[in-house]
Design goal:
This protein is an alpha/beta fold. A 7-stranded mixed beta sheet has the order 6-5-4-7-10-15-16, sandwiched between helices. A 4-stranded mixed beta sheet has the order 11-8-9-14, covered by helices on one side. The chain is globular and about 65 Å long. The chain binds 5-S-methyl-1-O-phosphono-5-thio-D-ribulose.
Length: 363
């Protein structure tokens, strides 16, 4: 398992004003290397999960997060799992691997990119005779590089919609940290910024994990794109005072009718956008589209521990005795979405027919 041209392609771009210097997932010296996002923005610490159990733990515990990023990580997790299973049983590795794939799939339930990447790895497994590690590593790298390429295409498609001088609000973290690199919604913002189209970029804090304050603000400032943070509950007022013309965010799953599952609070933003005439853009690669589900009601929404709401930075902030409900995602009906940007094109006012037409264009 040596360095290949594909690995070279996953490196950041720091020159030529590209503004894209961060990679959260790398395969280095035969090891998976994850930037531990729980430590940001204060510390750049890396984790090297040694086996599939540790990879599943890294996904579950938010070392790595963001829909495309957890799919890519799981694909590399299959490489580690297959390597161990083949050493254990050269004839029976494929059967043993099924349990590992189940463990990865259940690490987080909402982002469809996870099961999408695992299905691709399973399909690759079925074609392999002999030691699977090399071919599976190549497939994982393809998933990784294809995601990066898709993000760059979405960046161009999305940026082309934004008139010069507009300002945007983004939410959660949809950047290099959440993907193979460049980002989905943050990729559009990167491209629009590079084109000189953006006046201001606002980011919502994104309680309770503060992906906006900790991660998006870190990514943007590192890549020299000025960012203004707002509390999540300032968003409607930001719109009412006409300081943004766009909300641009990502998705963990888009169902066949165009419903969008994304970070809890996305639905609030979509309602506020419609009320104030602010355009609502969802940026998601085709690996996030789930044509097996009719609509968003059918998606399992991850509920995370109450402690994440009751505590902040390891310290209790809620009154003793209070409990908390902590859904990690919500569902925005397709009717509130103005644009769905994918690498295969842009859909205005997405619905079932338009998504089906896009699907027929996909390889
Ligand atoms: O809980 P997280 O941090 O994994 O949630 C991430 C999001 O909701 C992102 O908006 C989504 O995955 C799209 S990222 C490209």
């Amino acid at each position: 398992m040596n360095t290949t041209d594909e690995e070279q392609a996953i490196t950041p771009e720091t020159s030529g004003g590209v503004h894209d210097s961060i990679r959260a997932i790398q395969w280095l010296d035969n090891r998976l290397c994850l930037l531990d996002q729980r430590c940001l923005p204060f510390e750049e610490r890396y984790q090297y999960p040694v086996d599939v159990t540790e990879v599943a733990g890294s996904i579950r515990d938010m070392v790595v997060r963001g829909a495309p990023a957890i799919g890519i990580t799981a694909a590399y997790g299959v490489v580690l799992a297959a390597r161990d299973r083949y050493a254990q049983s050269p004839d029976g590795w494929l059967g043993l691997l099924a349990e590992d794939i189940r463990m990865l799939a259940s690490a987080r339930p909402t982002a469809v990119n996870l099961s999408w990447a695992l299905r691709r790895m399973e399909r690759c497994c079925a074609t392999i005779a002999g030691d699977p590690a090399g071919e599976l590593l190549n497939e994982a790298r393809r998933i990784h590089t294809e995601d990066l390429a898709a993000n760059r295409r979405m960046g161009e498609h999305g940026a082309a919609l934004i008139p010069a001088g507009d300002s945007v609000l983004t939410y959660c973290n949809t950047g290099s940290l959440a993907t193979g690199g460049y980002g989905t919604a943050l990729g559009v913002i990167r491209s629009a910024w590079r084109a000189g189209a953006l006046n201001r970029v606002f980011a919502g804090e994104t309680r309770p994990w503060l992906q906006g304050a900790r991660l998006t603000a870190w990514e943007l400032t590192r890549d020299r794109i000025p960012v203004t943070l707002i509390t999540d509950n300032a968003a409607a007022y930001l719109m009412q005072t006409r300081q943004v013309q766009w909300v641009i965010l990502g998705s963990d799953r888009v169902t066949a009718n165009g419903d969008v599952i994304n970070k809890i609070g996305t639905y609030n933003l979509a309602i506020s956008c419609r009320h104030h005439g602010v355009r609502f853009m969802v940026v998601a690669p085709c690996s996030t589209l789930d044509f097996t589900l009719n609509d968003g009601q059918a998606v399992e929404i991850e509920e995370r521990p109450a402690d994440e709401v009751l505590n902040l930075a390891g310290r209790r902030i809620a009154a003793e005795g209070a409990t908390a409900w902590n859904p990690a995602f919500d569902m925005t009906p397709a009717s509130l979405v103005d644009y769905l940007v994918t690498e295969n094109g842009v859909i205005q006012a997405p619905d079932r027919q338009k998504l089906a037409a896009l699907k027929s264009l996909s390889p």
